[in-house]
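Recall from the previous lesson that a structure prediction takes nothing but the amino acid sequence as input. Here we apply that procedure to Right-handed parallel beta-helix repeat-containing protein from Agrilutibacter solisilvae. The sequence below is the only information supplied.
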Amino acid sequence: MKNVLAGAVGAAALLCLSPMAHAQEGCSVLTVLPVTISQPGKYCLAQNFTTAITSGTLINIASNDVTLDCQKFTLRSTATSNTGSSSAIVAMSRNNIVIENCSIVGGFTYGINVSQVNSQPTQSYYNTIRNNYVAGPYYQGIIAFGSAIEVSDNRVYDVGGQLNQLAIGIRVGGSTTGGPKFQVIRHNGVIGTNSPASRAYGIYSDFSIGALINENLITGTASAPGQVSYGVRISQGGGNTITGNNILDNGSGQSVGVSTPASGGWCYDNLLRVGTNTQGCDATYGND
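The prediction returns the following tokens.
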């Protein structure tokens, strides 16, 4: 798909592809990108945009208390470099952020990146990423670090291809210095996460405590030959609940449905069609 999206657009060019549409009342319309949002408020897209940048960010949220509603308009990248560092939307160490109704397509390195430095105390919290469509990023589709984070009703397709890197559909995590690390990841579809060089993860957590991961569809996750792919993988934490997910591998059999640390959570009532159903879970009843 990334080759199909390639076009003769200059590396720094950003083009409007559709006429201005009606924006919601009380919403500040973003008409020129790249942009930095530096004041609280509600912001909207009312047109599509196309870019070929291989580094930098189209929409940088640099304030707390921001809602970004793309109104189903598209941020499209025609970049074909698998060594880039570009993002469609970034919010770094922010809180009370909502990102919704965005369509992000093509050769970004990252789709939506709501992040923090996890080696420091929690700075990112009360953030929501919902009802977005992310297709074709080279490295990671959605990142949501912090606590009191909700990632719901998103569709993430065709992630992978970054040079010598793993691939992750949805990534969450929390501070390693203590404090809460609670995330809710539910009702998402993660399809076709594929790393030709390393491991692939449908949903990956660096650190979660008491998180809820439920009713997600994860399929087509494929790692490089000899590497294991994971539907849901939690690397640190405990007390997590992973339930009601449908997880299917790509048919290779080199796959794990749900993996947590020892005593890392309860893994139950998942539909698993993978090489190994679960690893490390406290309870594994009802998985089929």
